[in-house]
Amino acid sequence: MTETPPPHADAVVHGKSGEQVTEWLRRDILEGVFVPGARIRQTDLAERYGATRAPVREALRMLAATGLISHVANAGARVARLTADECAELYRVRERIEPLLLEYTVPLLTPDDVAELRRLANEMSHTDDPELFVQLDREFHDLTYRPNATILLAQTVRDLWDRTQHYRREFSRKVRSFGDQSADFDHQLIVNAIERGDTDEVGRLIELHIRRTRLSLVAHPEVFA
């Protein structure tokens, strides 16, 4: 996590686009610089990213469309927050659509991709740092979805991941501190199935993987406090 502006910000001029500001703000939300419920002021963002108000407004509009930002009457923009039930609903959607996405993407993964997935899975299994685990976990799953084989599914999955990122981080801090490594076993099994090219097994494993996390999140309501 970083409390400093994006590394590009010192070179930013007034012509910066809304897409650039959107990606910087998205990154800051995912890294926990701005937490759920935090008020987002346009003037602060303009100063942070070295941009004018116009691209900042566009960024807020774009992230509101994905569910990361909410607009509250008489309170302005805030980082969206989820209740336990809302988070569980998003996880249920993921349980249904991620196996379908992997039907498209797994056949496109290369031996180098599989080797990188194995490296990430091994590194996750050896870290006690929940922040590093969440980062590696996101890299792992992003890699399985990376091939541009769909017009809708991959972006939908990415948006669902983004909306639950904060709660997954808080959950990982609690669970990994007690030595729960069930996610690590899942990752190894997923890589094995990908290596065999068994998309049906990959789909079953990812559905179980997501379901286990959903049930564990529901069992820890304090994550949503």
UniProtKB/TrEMBL annotation:
Matching InterPro entries: GntR_C, TF_FadR/GntR_C, Tscrpt_reg_HTH_GntR, WH-like_DNA-bd_sf, WH_DNA-bd_sf
The keyword Transcription regulation belongs to this UniProt entry's keyword annotation: yes
Keywords on record: DNA-binding, Transcription, Transcription regulation
The HTH gntR-type domain, residue ranges: 15-82
Keyword Transport (UniProt): no
PROSITE patterns found in the cross-reference section: HTH_GNTR (PS50949)
Family annotation (SUPFAM superfamilies): GntR ligand-binding domain-like (SSF48008), Winged helix' DNA-binding domain (SSF46785)
Signal peptide: none
Pfam families xref list: FCD (PF07729), GntR (PF00392)
Annotated protein name in UniProt: GntR family transcriptional regulator
